[in-house]
Design a protein that fits this description.
It is built from three helices and twelve strands; from the N terminus they run ααββββββββββββα. The chain is α+β, with helices and mostly antiparallel strands. It folds into two domains: 159 residues, Reeler domain (Immunoglobulin-like, Sandwich), CATH 2.60.40; 31 residues.
């Protein structure tokens, strides 16, 4: 099943190269898929991705900025966590969109191969709880299809005081109430 999934992902990526200049149909790439799908190799084009903060709060916003020496024609930017692509990218303009490859909005790509200027900022809204470390990954296509760069990862950490992602505050309250009642029961039984 894993081989079939890999082949389908590769074919979808080839379709991007051969017939679709309006955004990546995949939610993540690596050096091998970029090399086989785009040609060329990972080249230091000078693009850099940075975040305005090293931590995030539940439902808070992180601003990611792409900067570099020149324009770019394509981008794939995604969030990665133990929960998969997570959070929501706000689309900054008509030149970017969320691809349809994933049910989340934790991925962003381009809408055309027209040149786009840098610096450009992308807003990402965190999930409603601490999902642990979130790694932002990006692939940028420079001036031509075969000139591309896999950017250095940007990692932001969750705020420890936030509830765990996927655990509602009512669940946390019930767990805490249960703990308090259990401790009270143990203390009462020891004193009797």
């Amino acid at each position: 099943m894993s081989i079939i999934r890999s082949i389908l992902t590769f074919c979808a990526f080839l379709c991007l190269v051969a017939c679709n200049s309006n955004g990546a149909p995949v939610c993540s790439v690596n050096q091998a898929t970029m090399s086989s799908g785009m040609g060329g190799s990972n080249t230091a084009l000078g693009f850099v991705l940075s975040a305005d903060n090293s931590t995030y709060k539940a439902s808070g916003t992180i601003t990611l900025t792409l900067d570099g020496p020149s324009t770019y024609i394509g981008i794939l930017l995604w969030s990665s966590s133990s929960f998969g692509n997570i959070g929501t990218f706000t689309i900054p303009d008509q030149e970017h969109k969320n691809p349809t490859c994933d049910k989340s909005s934790g991925v962003l790509t381009h809408t055309s191969n027209d040149p786009k200027t840098v610096p450009i900022s992308f807003s990402w809204k965190a999930p409603n709880g601490n999902a642990g470390d979130i790694t932002f990954k990006a692939a940028v296509v420079g001036q031509t299809r075969t000139s591309w760069q896999l950017l250095d990862d940007v990692v932001v950490k969750g705020t420890a005081s936030d509830p765990k992602y996927g655990q509602s505050s009512s669940t946390s309250l019930l767990c805490n109430l249960h703990l308090i009642m259990t401790v009270g029961f143990i203390i009462r039984n020891k004193s009797e």
